[in-house]
Specification:
Elements (H helix, E strand, L loop, with lengths): L2 E3 L6 E3 L1 E4 L9 H13 L4 E3 L8 H10 L7 E6 L1 E3 L1 H7 L2 H10 L3 H11 L1 E3 L3 H15 L4 E7 L3 H6 L1 H11 L3 E7 L2 H8 L8 E5 L6 H5 L1 H7 L2 E5 L11 H8 L7 H13 L4 E6 L4 H11 L6 H8 L8
Helix pairs in contact: 1-2, 6-8, 13-14
Amino acid sequence: MQTRPLGASDLRLSVLGFGCAPVASRATARESEAAIRAGLDAGITYFDTADMYGLGGSEKTLARVLAGRPDRPVVATKCGYTFSAKLKAVAFLKPILRPLVRRLKGVKAGAASVMASQRSQNFDPAYIRACVDASLARLGFDRIDLFYLHDPPLDVIRRGAALATLRELKAAGKLRHIGLSGEASVAAAALQTPGHGMSAVQVAIGPLNQEAVSSVLPLARAQGVGVVAGQPFSNGRLFSSETFASALRQRGLPTDPRSMASVALRFVRDLDGVTSVLCSMMRPENLRTNAAAADGPALTSAERDAVLSLAGPERR
């Protein structure tokens, strides 16, 4: 699989990145380990996790699979969310509850609502330092390749202490590179902060969400900051979007899920400044589809017109 440099840094990432949000969370340990191994076999060299994914379980699972590999891929993780003691207790029951969540209608949405209600955010320097040490321990690394602030609000960036703490941890040798994963407006503000020290930003980009194309990519390119593009399928909403389907049909293009995914992923892949497109791929068929798209040809003029028809006037 093709790899690209992460901006001006010394890291190279596969053009398709493996999103680890479902690892040890929505998927079992066995399913998660099999999916990670399949990703490695497909040539993926960038795995993106966070301490909140599976309440640390995603990092631990990734560590088990990667242990002893001489060709370890680039691993990114994040911090910024906290969880209540109640939710941590529920984590112990996940193996029992997971089948119920999958089978009963409405339970999955209810479980997601409970998760959201039991988490908050903390970007205090002491908390960030503790999170970095905890992630190092779970991953079994001496140094983390890429560490992001996870969805920080704008005021956190304006205060500056959170990014300053990451810079200190990088100088101390615990982090190789630092960055921000979050909203396009917040990423743009961070990129305009003098001395931010970031090597990468991670923002959502896809046919249904093209804001970062004009607000983030030019800033990142000008500074040699790499961009990891997440949510190319808008968390699955792309496949039920009549607006996107209509744009494709009007140009004589197919609207089956595989074709829609291919157009979306190739569109994001070919944006100037994007290093890697991040997807969650727990099912083998999804990995095959996305890997084929990542290695596929550039968009045709009809495909490009269909995607750009969904953008604002400045992008058409």
